[in-house]
């Protein structure tokens, strides 16, 4: 018998105090979903969500009457957010789906806890915990969690048809909570309904895919997704699991954009389709720029002044994380110029991480102070000095750069 009150003791004191306060205001409410699942699994808690049979307007009123800040974050979906000590606690009225098109649902309220639990995606997410410590498990979620069995609630096809994003959520939860063979009926249902992904917004798809790429067991999970036909639906131009496996084998960081570049045959097309943010798109474009053959030869030679100079020049142009990402990709591809393979890459990365980012010590005002009038020539002169600075491995300081500026200006025809 699970001691629910003992489980609550795993929460930080601030969260425990907030939950006790909410239970004083809403005594029929229960903790639901991820918080119960992760308390049982003894995992870190990120969000604390509650459910209640009271309609959202009554929840809002009760919180306000008790002096708790209440935000109507989604009244049409039954959700009110209580803010206690700057932390949010979502409270959602028990619901039933009246109508759904695989993306959006029209809901109505219910007082039936099992009916609400039945509309959740997986059994391990359909658990609830009441204020007396009673654990409510209508579909065997606790046993599934203990067994590492990620299983849809009820009919898997119906759950997917209610919200096609559950296809991707299945793989994310399988990677985090699954053990052994994945649920056969779940994979069969996903394969039969995979075309429903076309009706989802690409923003929702990218949000889930990003979490899969950043999560555990990424290679195994992507193989499952390929077998179920999911990758073919969401990766225009195809996917290269072999390249991604090589990258992961190097020990590369689980940066989802880095892994996406390794996975996608056509990364530019993928980021355009998924409508990633401008910053994410820029990062991908930067990762796709290749090192020159001259740079690769320097890398293969290992540590030394020439390598430091080359890396310093690169750092003057591009962010360190971009350069490190490109090195990881190159190592995964096992560039043939690297005579001793991974050891060379480790040397280059260590040198890159040890270097300070060089800052060109002059600006336009220095050119003006040297006597050149404002105009296009200012940028031209500055560019010449900067080119000289880079040619010297970005080592020259301000005094040396000012002397070079004077020499460049002196050499100009009058």
UniProtKB/TrEMBL annotation:
Could you tell me what this protein is called? CCA tRNA nucleotidyltransferase
Range of residues in the leader sequence: none
Q: What Pfam family is a match for this entry?
A: PolyA_pol
Spell out the family assignment given in the record's similarity comment. Belongs to the tRNA nucleotidyltransferase/poly(A) polymerase family.
Does this entry carry the keyword Transferase?
A: yes
Give cofactor(s), names only.
Mg(2+)
Keyword Nucleotide-binding included in the entry's annotation: yes
Q: Which organism is it from?
A: Acetobacter vaccinii
InterPro entries in UniProt = Bact_CCA-adding_enz_type3_sf, NT_sf, PolA_pol_head_dom, PolyA_RNA-bd
GO process terms (BP): tRNA processing
Keywords in alphabetical order: Magnesium, Metal-binding, Nucleotide-binding, Nucleotidyltransferase, RNA-binding, Transferase, tRNA processing
